[in-house]
Amino acid sequence: MSYNVAVVGATGMVGRQFISILEERNFPINNIYFFSSSRSAGSILKFKNTDITVEELNEDNIKNKKIDFALFSAGGDTSLAFAKIFVKYGAIVIDNSSAFRMDPNVPLVVPEVNGDDILNHKGIIANPNCSTIQAMVALKPLYDNYGINRIIYSTYQAVSGAGMGGFKDLEEGVTGKAPQKFTSPIAFNVIPQIDSFLDNGYTKEEMKMINETKKIFHDDALKITATTVRVPVYHGHSESINIELKTSFNIEDIFNLYNSSNGIVLKDDISNNIYPMPIDIAGKDEVYVGRIRRDFSLDNGLNIWVVADNIRKGAALNAIQIAECFIEKKLI
Ligand code: NAP
Ligand code: 3JN
After folding, report:
1. Do 89 and 141 belong together in one domain?
2. Residue from 114, 68, 75, 110 nearest 91 by CA
3. Are residue 87 and residue 155 in the same domain, yes or no?
4. Strand partners, 152
5. Which ligand is nearest to the Cα of residue 158, counting in written order?
6. Looking at the annotation, which residues are catalytic?
7. Any residues with CB less than 8 A from the CB of 88 and at least 6 apart, and which?
8. What's the predicted TM-score (pTM) here?
9. Which residue out of 13, 14, 157 has the highest number of ligand 1 atoms within 8 Å of its CB and is therefore the one to mutate?
10. Which tens digit of pLDDT belongs to each residue from 100-150?
11. How many domains does the chain have?
């Protein structure tokens, strides 16, 4: 069985990653279609050495294609305008934007964590924010084995999370050029702001992490706070996560747990200065965990350091894994 797949936002940072991961994983494709805005329509992108012309996203270009999966990464406004049109013509939409994440009718899914939530879908499945995804994979074994009372997230996020524009700001910033995408220079700097500020003093990115974590764990009682920071790194988000577990633990058991958890690589050998770093994980599928240690300042406190490729597991790969879940569960 093979499927007709549309990539919406194909010319972007995440869209291009969709294309290469579909190729790498040999996703069962019958026809593939690439969509963008009118700016890039008509340009050519390769898929498995075949030239594919990028089409402008409009209803006429969607309706006769019998698309099975539409993988969206063209921003929330585009998702709001077009996701339901794809669903109307029979597609399952897997959306990378925040447009539908908190919609109670839309499952928000990390396959290793809550893959079964896709069973409740009504056509659209939301991919969580990149910072949430890697945190979920790392927290799931702790949540299942000890329970979690409270989480403190502090992130160190790569410029690729802000798309082609973010990438360019760092590339050109090192030569002294003023930023176009970020509010301040990112070269030789860190910016304690990702996305815009809300009335409560948090950024949207911080509130996404808080709200999405509760939705994915189906646990509104979780106490969570977050500070999200942009750093001058091209690929790979890093997170310091402080956790208050519900029950006591042996630190050796936590190491053993991470050694045997789905989708996780344990990289923690401080006697040899070994820990996960973004420079080592670009292009990798797994979530890397290290710097595991007890937080002595509270009962049942734990610190972990979590690194993943934000455009792969944080965006395109997770979405494609959701599509693979549909196929594995014979839902399509
Ligand atoms: P990007 O590099 O700026 O690419 C944006 C893409 O969207 C381009 O292909 C662009 O086409 C297309 N696009 C823009 N407006 C459009 C419209 N009106 N109709 C059709 N296509 C349109 O951005 P990116 O980093 O790939 O991110 C794209 C989106 O993915 C983000 O806005 C966000 O919603 C989501 N995202 C999610 C995560 C995550 O955490 N899971 C991470 C990064 C991004 P043109 O070439 O024609 O401009
Ligand atoms: O900045 C990052 O590292 C992640 C950015 C994600 C992002 C960027 C623009 C719009 C999102 C997202 O996925 O939450 C959105 C959005 O759809 O709101």
Report:
1. no
2. 68
3. no
4. 225, 242
5. 2
6. 130, 237
7. none
8. 0.98
9. 14
10. 999 999 999 999 999 999 999 999 999 999 999 999 999 999 999 999 999
11. 2
